Every structure is written in C-alpha cells, then in structure tokens.
Amino acid sequence: MFFFFVNRWQIFKSAPKETHPFWWQIVFGFRIMSDAELAKFSSYIFGQAFTTLKCQASQYLPWMEKRFKSNGGHLECRKVYNVWDLHGTYDVVVNCSALGSRDLFGDQSIYPVKGQVLEVNAPWIKHFIRDGDGNSYIYPGISVVTLGGTRQKDDWSCMPNAQATKDILDRCCHLEPSLSGVSVIQEKVGLRPTRSALRIEKDILIKNGQQLLVIHNYGHGGGGFSIHWGTAKTATKLLQELIPLIHNVSMKSKL
Ligand SMILES: Cc1cc2nc3c(=O)[nH]c(=O)nc-3n(C[C@H](O)[C@H](O)[C@H](O)COP(=O)(O)OP(=O)(O)OC[C@H]3O[C@@H](n4cnc5c(N)ncnc54)[C@H](O)[C@@H]3O)c2cc1C
C-alpha cells in the first residue's frame, strides 16, 4: 500500500487571494477551517482542511519498475553523453532527463531548486500540516514523518545543510510543538527540476541528413509525483502520433 488517505490542514498567516484553490473540488471534503481548529496554530488566521492522497514514493517507484519490467520493459542504467549516441539503436527517444536536458538538449531554462527535508520518528502525528507559503510542512508517511523544507534556486548541492536542519526543526516545532526534541532519522536532499513551464512536446533533431525523433517530458519542478501520470499519458499520445513517422524514417534509411 503506497497510496493512502491523509487529512490535511493548510494554514495561512494572512488570508490567501483565493479561499478556494482551483483544486478544491478534486480533493475530498474541502472546507474552511473553524476558529476552534485554527486556535491550535498561533499567528495563523486562515486555514483550509481537506482529505487527499499521499504517495509513498519510496515504495511506489520500485512497484512501477517491477510493473514496467513485467510488461516487457528493459532497463539499462548508464549516462547518455550525447543523445545522438542513441540514434540507430532506438526508434524514438523519450527524454525524461529533467536537469540533464541542460547538457543533452542545451535547454538552459531548466534549473534546480534544492529541497531539504528531515525524516523523524513521530508516530503520533496523523495530520498533514502545511504553511500556506509552502516552506514549512509536516507530512506523516507510513513509517516516518517528513518535516520540510527548503527551496534554494540554482543550488546544485545534494548535501544536507546543518543550518537548514535546525531551521526546519524550529519551523515545524512552531507549527506542532509536540515535535520538540523529536529524533531525526535522516536528512534528505533533492533537486526539483524546475522550468517556467513543463516541456512535453515532439522534437525532430536533424544532423548530417539523419533524423532523431524525440519526445520531451520534463520540468516537473516540485510536483512530479502529483502530475506524472497525466504527463506520461500526454507523452504517450505524442509518441503514438510519431509512429507513422518512424516507419517513414526507417523506410528511407533502408532505401
Ligand atoms: C524536497 C522535495 C520534496 C518534493 N515533494 C514533492 C511532493 O510532495 N509532491 C510531488 O509531486 N513532487 C514533489 N517533489 C518533486 C518531485 O520529486 C520531482 O518533480 C520529480 O522527482 C521529478 O521527476 P523526473 O523524473 O522528471 O526528474 P528526476 O527525478 O530528476 O529524474 C531525472 C533522471 O534523469 C537522469 N539523467 C539525467 N541526465 C541523464 C543522462 N545524461 N544520462 C542518463 N540519465 C540521465 C537522472 O539521473 C535522473 O535519474 C519534491 C522534490 C523535492 C526535492
């Protein structure tokens, strides 16, 4: 079980522009928090309560890999230094290289937003609590609670930072004082592959009279798990549109 329901409080120090975000009918039981609920959070004046799904990525990704392989998919793990090295071996390249697209495709508009989180042992935490500014959050998972976070644009370091750990703990203890003194199991760092807009499109590269068919699917920023199913479906549709072209390209190369 790697998807499960979680109740969430999203709280604001000043009233947000929209009391009801665009996704309010997608989540379950969306409502504005009562004054009694808000009283628990000093310095917060407005809140939204709802139930949504959490994905336990550490379990979901291995499951997806297994599913891919059991459907005939083959995995080969290696760095691609030049996308043209794939020409002749594969009919189409689906580019999900995210930040790697800077070097592979010369896309300088994608950049990292470093994020640090802490995994802590706090089994009594059952509610997902998030400051509306998105910087501080307490996210209960299956076996640990994740405390966040940080957002550092253009920071390529994947090393945890001790000051960030202290800041995250301070902010999360302010949100939920029972976390005071909690034991940190692990500090985790990731780079959100950020772009002003996702890139999901067909691309036909041409070099020395040769064509390389590419589908781009990258730039998921801080929401890749939330939206990956939809972006993968769009990329698949684009791939289906390219299939007639694949035959033309291989016919030509045979003539
Ligand atoms: C702290 C933090 C919290 C987050 N929280 C959430 C959340 O709550 N909800 C949510 O939806 N999302 C969240 N995200 C965002 C989510 O993790 C990303 O959007 C998602 O991982 C992006 O996936 P991706 O496959 O597009 O890119 P990546 O995960 O960056 O994968 C790209 C892959 O391409 C490979 N690659 C690159 N270049 C090459 C090359 N030349 N040759 C071979 N391989 C290459 C890389 O090694 C990597 O494996 C969070 C991210 C962080 C850091």
From TrEMBL:
Catalytic activity, EC: 1.4.3.1
Function: Selectively catalyzes the oxidative deamination of acidic amino acids. Suppresses the level of D-aspartate in the brain, an amino acid that can act as an agonist for glutamate receptors. Protects the organism from the toxicity of D-amino acids. May also function in the intestine.
Reactions that this protein is recorded to catalyse: D-glutamate + O2 + H2O = 2-oxoglutarate + H2O2 + NH4(+); D-aspartate + O2 + H2O = oxaloacetate + H2O2 + NH4(+)
Family statement drawn from the similarity comment of this UniProt entry: Belongs to the DAMOX/DASOX family.
Keyword hit for Zinc-finger: no
Cofactor: FAD
InterPro entries (UniProt xref): D-amino_acid_oxidase_CS, DAO, FAD-dep_OxRdtase
Enzyme class, first EC level, given as a word: oxidoreductase
Residues annotated as domain FAD dependent oxidoreductase: 54-237
Protein name in UniProt: D-aspartate oxidase
Record localization: Peroxisome matrix
Keyword list, A-Z: FAD, Flavoprotein, Oxidoreductase, Peroxisome
UniProt-listed PROSITE patterns: DAO (PS00677)
